[in-house]
Amino acid sequence: SQQGEEDPQALSIQEGENATMNCSYKTSINNLQWYRQNSGRGLVHLILIRSNEREKHSGRLRVTLDTSKKSSSLLITASRAADTASYFCATESGGSYIPTFGRGTSLIVHP
Amino acid sequence: NAGVTQTPKFRVLKTGQSMTLLCAQDMNHEYMYWYRQDPGMGLRLIHYSVGEGTTAKGEVPDGYNVSRLKKQNFLLGLESAAPSQTSVYFCASRSDSPYEQYFGPGTRLTVT
Prior knowledge:
The structure holds 2 protein chains of 2 kinds.
Chain A: E1 5-7, E2 10-14, E3 19-24, E4 31-37, E5 43-50, E6 55-58, E7 61-66, E8 71-76, E9 85-92, E10 100-101, E11 105-110
Parallel strand pairs in A: 2-11
Antiparallel strand pairs in A: 1-3, 3-8, 4-5, 4-9, 6-7, 7-8, 9-10, 9-11
Chain B: E1 4-7, E2 10-13, E3 19-25, E4 31-38, E5 42-49, E6 56-57, E7 65-67, E8 73-78, E9 87-95, E10 100-103, E11 107-111
Parallel strand pairs in B: 2-11
Antiparallel strand pairs in B: 1-3, 3-8, 4-5, 4-9, 5-6, 7-8, 9-10, 9-11
């Protein structure tokens, strides 16, 4: 069963706009990770945020975590056509080293 | 470093046939995973391993077996393929610090 659920399922924007996608989860977590998957490829790790952190940045990516609402958001600023991909959140809980993935958000950035 | 590699990249099987998917990593990671990805379902964990000689069941283990005889290799076997096993299979390994998974390029399997 999926621990994390991304929202929206699909997002279509113009190049230069910001893209925001959200992830909600059900149980307490140790950390939450975001991955990107280009069509026909494997997943690539983007960023990890621990349960005691509220915000992290990496280049044009900004991730927030609200443990009280059991939710996280991924913001991609000044999007590019190359950002077109599916984005997944994954959570780890307890002593598990098993990330549980959501169904993903499909992002299309139009040039 | 090649990272995580998977063979084969594509395969077509007839119902009842068997095959083995090979995953190899050169990063000396202890943890390795096999996932399947189906449209609209995200990634579902089939089996995983926390070290050489160990394996454990994930969310959807039925119809699959695995072996981790060497630390760098994680094999996924289908003894009697079924059309429901048509999917894209991803292998991943995990680093301890920082925690992140490295994925292979995937194997696209069709069972007719």
